[in-house]
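[Discussion] Sanity-checking designs against the backbone

I'm trying to build intuition for which residues belong where. Below is a structure token string of 166 positions. I'd appreciate it if someone posts a full sequence so I can compare it with mine line by line.
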């Protein structure tokens, strides 16, 4: 009888330990990105949920669509999808970059050098752009609205006092 009790106790203890180990918290998306060699600041601080399948396909959900000013103004849709690979995100949907103050372009691919360097690469259509990775190392707050373009435009000539020389 004592040996049956020990067996049941051992099984119960083993199952309890397995349950404790399997209930460990799910890593955040900001913890997942560096495991793939990518900076955690690629996504804004407003991620509410994400899914990641075994083949690397993911969906990230934000609280709201929003903007972040890096070297360029970036727009994040409420849902972002793509495929996560070591050192890259491909098939990206839901992130756009602003160019020329009024044109928006889809970001298709994000890559980093392996081993890591100071650069990160963005593919927008057929254009590849190399940027400094430092601006993506920390997670940024998202803004609900784009930054005022007027603040970024040069001052109109009419507003500049002319220097008259004789």
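Best answer:
Here's mine. Compare freely.
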């Amino acid at each position: 009888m004592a040996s049956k009790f020990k067996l049941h106790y051992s099984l119960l203890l083993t199952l309890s330990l397995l349950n404790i180990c399997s209930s460990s918290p799910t890593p955040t998306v900001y913890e997942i990105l560096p495991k793939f060699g990518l900076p955690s600041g690629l996504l804004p601080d407003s991620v509410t949920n994400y899914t990641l399948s075994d083949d690397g396909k993911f969906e990230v959900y934000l609280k709201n669509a929003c903007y972040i000013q890096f070297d360029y103004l970036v727009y994040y849709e409420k849902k972002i999808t793509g495929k996560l690979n070591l050192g890259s995100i491909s098939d990206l949907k839901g992130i756009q970059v602003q160019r020329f103050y009024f044109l928006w372009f889809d970001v298709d691919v994000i890559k980093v050098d392996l081993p890591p360097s100071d650069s990160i690469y963005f593919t927008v259509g057929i254009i590849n752009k190399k940027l400094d990775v430092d601006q993506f190392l920390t997670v940024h707050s998202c803004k609900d609205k784009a930054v005022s373009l007027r603040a970024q435009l040069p001052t109109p000539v009419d507003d500049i006092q002319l220097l008259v020389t004789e």
